[in-house]
Predict the 3D structure of the following.
Amino acid sequence: MKVVVDSNIVFSAILNTKGTIGQLIINGSQYFDFYSIGLLKEEIIAHTDKILNFTRFTQEQFEDIFQLIISRIRFVDDILLNEKDINKAIDLVSGIDNNDAMFVALILHLSSNLWTGDKQLINGLKNKGYTRIFATHDIYEIYLAKQLKSKRKRL
């Protein structure tokens, strides 16, 4: 299943690799194909100092965690997104959060689902009739179901 992850999901995974989001990114890659926009890596790097201050990671710890998390995600360069998808995404996020337009353009481009923790984005898109959105609890339920199915097959 293709799933686009937005900034808040990736930042959450980096800030707490042992939390639900971190573990879903790390271990869920066996069930999900995670994607994001290429610019997200630059955004994370730009906030390295804030992350280091917040987490008290050393630079080396941050780099290891950053590499672990981004190794589970396929990054798509925004130049590969077509104008139709970008324009539709801009229309969908208008009045919600224009900063999310490229993530929405990517889900349109990939015909995939969006995983976000942004309740305003979830509600705003659903109000506009776009329902291919997952909150963390949705992804977690799908993950658990796939885990159970996998264990049953082994028995």
Remarks:
- The first strand starts at residue 2 and ends at 5.
- Residues 2-154 form a domain with the Rossmann fold fold (CATH 3.40.50.1010).
- The chain has a mean pLDDT of 93.
